[in-house]
Amino acid sequence: MTAPEADVIRSPHTGWTRRHWEHTADTLLAAVRPHAGPEGSLIHLPGPASGSGTHSDGLEGFARTFLLAAFRAAGTTDREHAARLLAPYAEGLAAGTDPAGPHRWPRPAELPQARVEAASLAIALHETRPLLWDRLPDAVRQRAVDWLREVCGAAVPPNNWVWFRAVVSAFLRSAGAPYAPDDIDHAIEATETWYAGEGWYSDGTRSPGHLRNYDHYNGWAMHLYPLWYSRIAAGHADPARTAVYRRRLAAFLDDAAHLVAANGSPLLQGRSLTYRFAAAAPFAAGALFDTGALTPGLTRRAVSGMVRHFLDHGATEPDGLLSLGWHHPFPRLRQHYSGPASPYWASKAFAVLLLPGDHPLWTATEEPLPVERGDFVRAMAAPGWIAAGTRADGIVRVANHGTDHTPPDRPARDDPFYARHAYTTHTAPELAPLRPAPAGPHPDPQAHARDGDARHRDAADLAQLHDSHVALLTADGTPSQRTPFERVALTEDTAVSRHRAHWPPPADGTEEAADRDRWPAGPWITTAALLHGPWEIRLIRVTPDDAAATAGPPLRLRVGGHPLAAAAPPQEDTTAGHALVRRPDGLTSALFPLRPDDGTPAVHRDRHTNAFGPHSATPHYLTPRPLPYGHVHAVALYLGNPGPQAPPPEPPTVTVDGTTLTVHWPGGPTRTLTL
């Protein structure tokens, strides 16, 4: 297929128009067709099986690409093309719902993952109702109803999954079939308990009242499904409740636009990152459900920028399939629930195609993103983040002092997708291999892998942990863990949190629940982040509690900066009292010890641990001697692109009076903080 010509007049930032979206959808759909099985009900893409097995993965391949086909077909005026797109899915639906057929789908009653895919099927069937559902034979419609009804009342975890049941029930009701009103009521009621304000939902909670699960699911699930439920339910939906959902999405989009880089990359934080441009889904929903939050030109700039970013950076294989990874294939980005077709959750972004060609989303001129308009520092209270964007390089950085995806009352192993002190649009956390999930029921369900992610770090993994962290090292060099941590303060440019340092045993899946209360624990670490331009000042104060005060001598402190990764090893420089790493394109990460300034800046290197490339390097700092309790440590962390050979700008400085610190930004204001 020949790509359309770029339109740099209407789309001066991306060049994309509606025709590019249609072309991309057609290309993605054409790539999966050779992998459809007999009768088209199961689409088995190449790659490692998910934890749910290959049968489930085949259903996932069908459901998630059916959603893409549905958006493409429902939004086109070319009825013949729509019919061609939907014909194989009509055939697959007939075969997949046949309980006695050789190519049947796994049933929702027998496989939890089928309950997830049922929601995509319901939305796709709703959007193509006159094109597909209404034209199916009565027997096929009845089999589809019978299959979907198994979702009703099925067990789901207390998170975004509650909406899979509600959306399915809404579709069943619209089809005149029995449905589960309790599923709808439960989703609505549970969602209210997870709303944290200012447009942010926690994706469920591990402990009632403790909202700590913030990631891209806020946009591509917690906002998307309630509004799609209302769309399917039509007159049965409470209009006042729908209006609330629209206002909340509008509030979130104001923050979300500040988390998109000038190159189109979303923030690389949280689980399921292989869904890639599904991060554009809340922007698409904002336009589709007319929230009025963002102008049409800004919305198209965001959504087209995200999709183009991934396509331009190798998200598709030579055969056109979306790979498991971020840019290029990167297996360590998987969770245990990730299968070869999981990346097609990205189909949600194509909801923009439901808007007709004369909609302002398509006719307006693209407008710049917040990071393209100027530098900003922005507090996001619900997730406990401070975001900073810089126009010169288009990078967005986030200091994380409120999101750890962990129960608050017991020590846990750090999850690299949630526990780091910083996340950005241009760097990725270093990842250990995905360990096999423990067999059988886990002895501590609250501590089990987050939503199926059994990424536990053993002693060897922990020894390699350097990126974006603050840790106390034992005599053998094992770093302490951060989660769970407590919020302390959040202002317009500063975030503060504290945690009890602890050292988990090697993760072999055999420890008993009670063992967590006996994990070795150390002093409290209070950490503050002050952001300004490309800089973060990270302040650390270590204080004992009664037990730790007599447990032994103070420990050495290590602070890690932003990791960089590329196809070739990044350059490094540790000759001027700081540690610096630089990619060939000029992207630079540096760490400057400020107080005290006699530590050991160094660079840690690794291979095949980072989504941005096979060679990674992280600047870090180690105190030269055990850290006295109560003293304040300060480092300056830089992430920016001053040019391929240019040094970073002049770093900020810090003066200390007891526990009161004054930060002096070069050529700018001062900031005082008591830690």
Tell me what the structure shows.
The protein is α+β, with helices and mostly antiparallel strands and 675 residues long. It is 27% helix and 20% strand. It has 14 helices and 22 strands. The chain is globular and about 75 Å long. Residues 17-369 form the DUF2264 domain.
The CA-CA distance between the termini, in Å, is 59 Å
Class per helix and strand makeup: alpha+beta
Query: What does the overall shape look like?
Result: globular
Unreliable segments (pLDDT under 50, ≥5 consecutive)? 440-456
What is the number of beta strands?
22
Binned, the helix content reads 25-40%
Major sheet summary line: 8 strands, antiparallel
Mean pLDDT: 92
Radius of gyration: 25 Å
Provide a compact summary of the structure.
With 675 residues, this protein is of the alpha+beta class.
Topology:
Elements (H helix, E strand, L loop, with lengths): L17 H15 L21 H21 L4 H18 L15 H16 L10 H12 L12 H13 L6 H13 L1 E3 L2 E2 L15 H17 L5 H18 L24 H8 L7 H17 L47 H4 L6 H4 L2 E5 L4 E6 L4 E6 L21 E3 L34 H5 L6 E4 L11 E6 L3 E9 L18 E12 L2 E9 L12 E5 L3 E3 L4 E3 L5 E4 L5 E8 L4 E11 L2 E10 L9 E9 L12 E5 L2 E5 L5 E5 L1
Antiparallel strand pairs: 1-2, 3-4, 4-5, 5-6, 7-12, 8-9, 9-10, 10-11, 11-19, 12-18, 13-18, 14-15, 15-16, 16-19, 17-18, 20-21, 21-22
Protein name: DUF2264 domain-containing protein
InterPro entries: DUF2264_N (IPR049349), UCP014753 (IPR016624)
Pfam family, one: DUF2264
